[in-house]
Amino acid sequence: MTTTREPTPPDRTPSRPLTIAQIAELAGVSPATVSKVVNGRSEVAPETRALVEGLIREHGYRRQKKRPATAPLIELVFNELEGAYAMEVIKGAEHVAREHGLAVVVSELQDHRPPATGWIEGVIGRRPHGVIVVFSGLTKAQHEQLRTRDIPVVLVDPTGDPGHELPSVGAGNWSGGLSAARHLLELGHRRIALITGPAHALSSRARLDGFRAAMDAAGVPTDPELVRQGDFSAEDGLAHARSLLAMRRPPTAVFAFNDAQAMGVYQAAHEMGLRIPDELSVVGFDDLPMAQWLIPALTTVRQPLTEMAAAATAMVVAIARGESPVQNRIELTTGLVVRGSTAPLVA
């Protein structure tokens, strides 16, 4: 009968690295079983896997002197793959990966935040050069599982505070929100509606804070009735815009926190017979390729998604080579792109 023991909680500092044989002895299993867990093989009972992972977190794992060979892959992980946002990120990652003779493997978590358990075993089994997680995060245990296998991780546009534990790449969301508000204020708009992103998204909170900073500086209060929390989808933008435009005193401008939501605003305006920008000004965020093809072309805040992904890929390749990143957090600038969807307020 196999005996088990409760491993030390994961936040305890490892005492001393153990070999596979030593971990197997403590767990009461065979070295082959421990090896399967270490290498992400699936044919291990969940309780045994949890026990072995707990021992690795507690004591550390003494790897072979020669670093295990990695596959020539970069693992690019999304919550969902729909839309042009993902395509811009993939383009940036593939460009840099190709320069280093690497391929990009794309995974979709289907809105599991953090990634579901089975995902991590697949990554460990593939042994990629590194992992780039987009608009999400990892649990401490998942990060530890990758760290003990020497698989570096970089976050792109993380939903929460990335802290200092993992390298990350983001954009100037606060300044982007500020520039959107200033642009609409300069055009004379005061009743400006906001369709934000999810509450858990750091980028959304930063855009909102930047917007409010510009409004406060101009002495214009932000009307709580004009602030609607969205989920970064076109359907969501449509639903909120319908509600906003049906108000007794509707907004004269809408700042949608991404271009997809701005498309929904366009549809709502069309349904209600409102002309953009003559009767409603609209600002988006991201500057995806579709923005310039809307009629009228969308004024939006450019987020350099391709460049963000390229920077993250370069960072993960460097870490895989044993180099320390020059900085743990890279933040690329955003900029307002003025097109035809905004115009001065007509009294």
Largest sheet: 6 strands, parallel
Q: Uncertain segments of ≥5 residues (pLDDT<50)?
A: 1-14
Query: Averaged pLDDT, please?
Result: 86
Please report the distance between the alpha carbons of the first and last residues: 83 Å
| General form | elongated
β-strand number: 12
How many whole angstroms does the radius of gyration measure? Answer: 24 Å
Q: Strand pairing plus helix content: what structural class?
A: alpha/beta
Helix content: 25-40%
Helix run count? 11
Strand-and-helix sequence, N→C?
HHHEHEHEHEEHEHEHEHEEHEE
What can be said about this structure in brief?
The chain is of the alpha/beta class and 347 residues long. It has helices at residues 20-27, 31-38, 46-59, 84-99, 117-126, 140-147, 173-186, 202-217, 234-245, 259-271, 305-320, and strands at residues 73-78, 103-108, 130-134, 153-156, 168-171, 192-196, 227-229, 253-256, 281-286, 299-302, 329-332, 335-337. The protein is built from 11 helices and 12 strands.
Commentary on this structure:
With 347 residues, the chain is of the alpha/beta class. The protein contains 11 helices and 12 strands. It has helices at residues 20-27, 31-38, 46-59, 84-99, 117-126, 140-147, 173-186, 202-217, 234-245, 259-271, 305-320; strands spanning 73-78, 103-108, 130-134, 153-156, 168-171, 192-196, 227-229, 253-256, 281-286, 299-302, 329-332, 335-337. It has a 6-stranded parallel sheet with strand order 2-1-3-4-5-11. Helix 10 (259-271) links the parallel strand 8 and strand 9.
